[in-house]
Amino acid sequence: MTDAPAPTALKLFNSLTRQLEEFRPVHPGEARVYSCGPTVYNYPHIGNMRAYVFADTLGRTLSFKGYKLTHVINITDVGHLTDDADAGEDKMEKMAAEKAQSIWDIARHYTEAYWADVKALNIRQPAHWSIATDYVPQMIEFAKAIADKHCYELEGGLYFDTSTVTDYGALARAKTEDGEGRIEEVEGKRHAADFAIWRKTPAGETRQMEWDSPWGRGAPGWHLECSVMSEALLGFPFDIHTGGIDHREIHHPNEIAQNQAHSCSDASGARIWMHNNFLIERSGKMSKSAGEFLRLQLLIDKGYHPLAYRLMCLQAHYRSELEFSWEGLGAALTRLKRLVMAIEKLKSVDDPYEGFGDFTDPSEDFWTERNRAERANPTHRFADDMIHHKLSRAFANAIGDDLNTAIALTVLEDAIQKGSNNLRHELVERFDGVLGLGLLTLARSDLRIRPKAATITESEIEAILTRRKEARAVKDFATSDKLRDELIAAGVEVMDGDPLGWDWRLEA
Ligand code: AMP
Ligand code: ZN
């Protein structure tokens, strides 16, 4: 294990130290990342998906910076209770009972729904999707290793004594006894923050998911899976652990406590712990049960391309709260349309040097790197080099500064405007490799999604618009207005002279 310097600077905010830190891999040239994945008892909401857009952007950035990435995302299909702080029922068991289905079917259905969202948002496949129920024997072994020194048994199962590790809850910056929402009615618990390692099936009951263990038949506590799977797949310690900011308070401090107990050290498991802030609704915290369920599919049903949501996420810093609004999503869609149209234009031009020449601002250190002869006699290639150098550096600096995607996006927009077509192509490809908007494959027509509620077809709209154009050409404004009203009645907004060249829009 060595502290090899990063190939190019990458600063990341470590929640453990609450500071920006230079990324230094545990294994030279490699980056190993673990992201807490979804609990597959229901569809993910778009807030959950923000966590994976963030993890994906981090992974893409590590690849961009030259690291060989191994990314693991887990699927929680056992153990997560309705309250993170170890109270309530198992989310999976509860949903299975409500739907009168097997847990395995519930898990499969919602895992597949999650993967569909992952794909729609251009989130790259991780090296491993680790599924919690595949690791129960390893979880039992892990629990056996820490049971004597760090755990105690109660009627309900095996509990972790948080006073047996140093500085419990340092990540949350919460004092052990007064962590919010932790006070739980489990009789005999030594400290409020103590948590279940193994939950016994109560006498006389059977659960759909249960395994034999030294502490009776039952199921693992939720936190155990991430300690076990991250070590199994990434080693100990590994580089970066990610999750939503809520995990900074309970789940991750508990993982750290388990890791310290298991490794008989102060090592937290990951060198850097990173947390994305929440997507919120004006009406309050997003929830899978309150109000309109903001799933990605709802956005698509209303006619918004899923990558407009990805762009909306990238416009904000991952550590800032992001407020969801339909207007904000609409603005992101317009920005995406602009990008796609500019790139389509680029693709349609044959002359690789067309558009060359609007570069004006070479930096000092660039000039010192150039030889004099070339400077005296600039060529297209030379100008391209300057632009390439400047924009590449601006992009690498932005993304290397704790993933400043908002600035990186503006550099990408700059890259579409500057230099020869060849260069623009090359830069868009490279920058979009990090931002993941699929800009070179998205077509303008892909962005026009038919709202589910729409009753009129695209060809019907085009036909009416053609008739309207003909009527206007002969100054038959009565017919033209009638046709326009027809379209409005069918939910079509006619956008004469739209600068983006979108003649119409179907309203959701
Ligand atoms: P869960 O399926 O509840 O375990 O959550 C999956 C991931 O989404 C976790 O990393 C959570 O921290 C994260 N998360 C939950 N709600 C939000 C939200 N509103 N905004 C962003 N991330 C969230
Ligand atoms: Zn986890």
Question: Would you give an account of this structure?
Answer:
The protein is α/β, with parallel strands linked by helices and 508 residues long. The chain folds into three domains: 274 residues, 3-Layer(aba) Sandwich (Rossmann fold); 133 residues, Four Helix Bundle (Hemerythrin (Met), subunit A), CATH 1.20.120; 53 residues, no CATH class. 42% of the residues lie in helices and 15% in strands. It has a five-stranded parallel beta sheet, sandwiched between helices. Strands 8-9-10-11 form a four-stranded antiparallel beta sheet. The structure holds adenosine monophosphate and zinc ion (ZN). The site of adenosine monophosphate (AMP) has 15 residues, from helix 1 and strand 12.
For the structure shown, list the relevant keywords.
alpha/beta; Rossmann fold; Four Helix Bundle (Hemerythrin (Met), subunit A); 3 domains; 16 helices; 15% strand; binds adenosine monophosphate
Write the layout of secondary structure elements.
Layout (H helix, E strand, L loop, with lengths): L10 E4 L4 E4 L7 E6 L10 H19 L3 E8 L5 E3 L3 E4 H9 L3 H18 L7 E4 L4 H15 E4 L2 E4 L34 E6 L17 E3 L1 H13 L3 E7 L6 H13 L6 E7 L2 E3 L2 E2 L10 H6 L4 H10 L6 E3 L1 H23 L15 H6 L2 H5 L3 H21 L4 H13 L3 H15 L22 H16 L3 H13 L2 E3 L9 E3 L2
Helix pairs in contact: 1-8, 1-14, 5-6, 8-9, 12-13, 13-14, 15-16
The largest β sheet comes out as: 5 strands, parallel
Strand content: 15-25%
Radius of gyration: 27 Å
Report low-confidence residues grouped into runs of 5 or more: 1-7, 176-183, 352-360
- The CATH homologous superfamily of the largest domain corresponds to HUPs
Shape: globular
Total separate domains: 3
Helix content: 40-55%
